[in-house]
Amino acid sequence: MADTNSTPILKDDLDIVIPTIRNLDFLEMWRPFFQPYHLIIVQDGDPSKTIRVPDGFDYELYNRNDINRILGSKASCISFKDSACRCFGYLISKKKYIFTIDDDCFVAKDPSGKEINALEQHIKNILTPSTPFFFNTLYDPYREGADFVRGYPFSLREGVPTAVSHGLWLNIPDYDAPTQLVKPMERNTRYVDAVLTVPKATLFPMCGMNLAFNRDLIGPAMYFGLMGDGQPIGRYDDMWAGWCMKVICDHLGFGVKTGLPYIWHSKASNPFTNLRKEYKGIFWQEQIVPFFQTVTLPKDCNTVQKCYIELSKLVREKLSSVDEYFIKLADAMLTWIEAWDELNPSEEATELPKFVSK
Ligand SMILES: O=c1ccn([C@@H]2O[C@H](COP(=O)(O)OP(=O)(O)O[C@H]3OC[C@H](O)[C@H](O)[C@H]3O)[C@@H](O)[C@H]2O)c(=O)[nH]1
Ligand SMILES: [Mn+2]
């Protein structure tokens, strides 16, 4: 997909963020789609290890020493030894859009056998509106060959700006550890040719392995929560970000899409290791989800930062009884916003769009 003068669309407006602990040979398969774009590689784990990046890619690479040098004491909000470290890439980027992908995600094929340019589909999703206020039964009405169906209010057909595009996975699905343990051989072979808007007031489990978002619209809310080294849970970083992001999108009138594009997820991480990381989260989420479902943000929260700071207060107030970890997480959410505003001073706060219900 290129714009009029055959420059890859959003070439200078989008960064690809990759969290990694390994050499990035997987980029060879993505080269036709990714090479024109700038990569931000967040190297996790031992900073003395050298990560090999295939020739020909334009990238910047940050390891833990870089994160500590750039953020100083605020580096405490960036996870270590967990893919949640990827959010440092969102912080340091200066671009309007972000696409983040794991290094064990490869190019998938659609039912016709055609290789899927996941980045191109995310860009289409992000650049077209969402429809969170009224469900369109023919899925995304802005896609080629689709439209609003009879009975869809014309007053709502303009849609709202799309903040997030959530892609899916063929082969290894993003299952939690208990499901992985009881279904070790299950593979996702079902290609569903659909893009849906997640309705307003509905939460969903956001997976970080194939995800794009409008950084200007929702970037400050995309903090992947404190996980990994020294933390009581793991593999809930993207879930946390997804729940915070969704309540803020609902409040500010932005949309979230899920469905196409698919990537080919090649590696099943160890279910026993995953169980150890997830198990507290499996209990806690039965209290965390109702918390997010009942959150209301004040009307004067008219920027993502203000919403996020308010959310941090509510987390401290309402979830500290679940575990003291949430006090630490609430603090880390504030540190994240301080770091965001410090590294992105010029970005004007996002104004309330005209269609937000007062
Ligand atoms: O300590 C670490 C471990 C891994 N990474 C990088 O994160 C990416 C995901 O790692 P991996 O594919 O090994 O784990 P999965 O279980 O498949 O990941 C899923 O569940 C956890 C997260 O939510 C993740 O987003 C999901 O995809 C990969 O690029 C590793 O190199 C790391 O940075 N630090
Ligand atoms: Mn993986």
Structure description:
With 358 residues, the protein is an alpha/beta fold. It has a domain of 240 residues. The protein has ten helices and nine strands. Helix 9 runs antiparallel to helix 10. The longest helix is centred in the last third of the chain and has 24 residues. It is globular. The two termini are 38 Å apart. The protein binds the ligand O=c1ccn([C@@H]2O[C@H](COP(=O)(O)OP(=O)(O)O[C@H]3OC[C@H](O)[C@H](O)[C@H]3O)[C@@H](O)[C@H]2O)c(=O)[nH]1 and manganese (II) ion (MN).
Helix content: 25-40%
The averaged pLDDT comes out at 95
Strand content: 15-25%
Query: What is the count of β-strands?
Result: 9
The low-confidence runs, each spanning 5 or more residues with pLDDT under 50, are 353-358
Biggest beta-sheet profile: 9 strands, mixed
Could you say which structural class the secondary elements and strand pairing correspond to? alpha/beta
> Compute the gyration radius: what is it?
20 Å
Secondary structure tally, helices: 10
Described by the principal axes of the CA atoms, the overall outline is globular
Order of helices and strands: EHEEHHEEHEHEEHHEHHH
Ions, cofactors, ligands: which are bound? the ligand O=c1ccn([C@@H]2O[C@H](COP(=O)(O)OP(=O)(O)O[C@H]3OC[C@H](O)[C@H](O)[C@H]3O)[C@@H](O)[C@H]2O)c(=O)[nH]1, manganese (II) ion
End-to-end C-alpha gap: 38 Å
